[in-house]
Amino acid sequence: MLLAVCAGLLLLSAPGESQNSERYRVRLTTVPMDGGMRNTVAGSGLASATLAGTKLSVSGTFDGLKSPATVARLHNGAARGVRGDSVGELMVSKATKGSLSGSVDLTPDQVKGLREGRLYIEIASEKAPEGNLWGWILK
Questions:
Q1: Count of alpha carbons within 13 Å of 39, Cβ hemisphere only?
Q2: What is the reported pLDDT for 12?
Q3: Are strands 119-125 and 69-77 parallel, antiparallel or unpaired?
Q4: Which residues contact 102 (CB under 8 A, 6 or more apart)?
Q5: Which helix (H) or strand (E) holds 91?
Q6: Residue whose C-alpha is closest to residue 127's, from 84, 96, 99
Q7: According to the model, what pLDDT value does residue 37 have?
Q8: Where along the chain do its domains lie?
Q9: pTM score, two decimals?
């Protein structure tokens, strides 16, 4: 009897947990900082992110880089569209086409920043170590 009650409570709690997660989307594009970078940055990609509690999980794909990706990071900008500090690293394919994924535990301020559209993903490449693809995480 106790086992049946515990199993029932577990089933009831599972849907609520998934309903509490927040889903976001990311469009990865190039953001040349100066004219010279047009020769080193290219490509595009898409990703999705899910916030469950304070854990942000990200997965996506990219294609068309002019040199292999080297690192993917989650950043927290001062405002939407403004660069900011890195808050965590993501796994990325070391290629011109591939995937990115990972999870980062966010602070309460970073969760607020996510909801305000200040968090973004940056993929750097060999020819563009300061960032090849960028994408703000939005609802």
A1: 2
A2: 45
A3: antiparallel
A4: 57, 58, 72, 88, 89, 90, 91
A5: strand 84-92
A6: 96
A7: 76
A8: 22-138
A9: 0.83
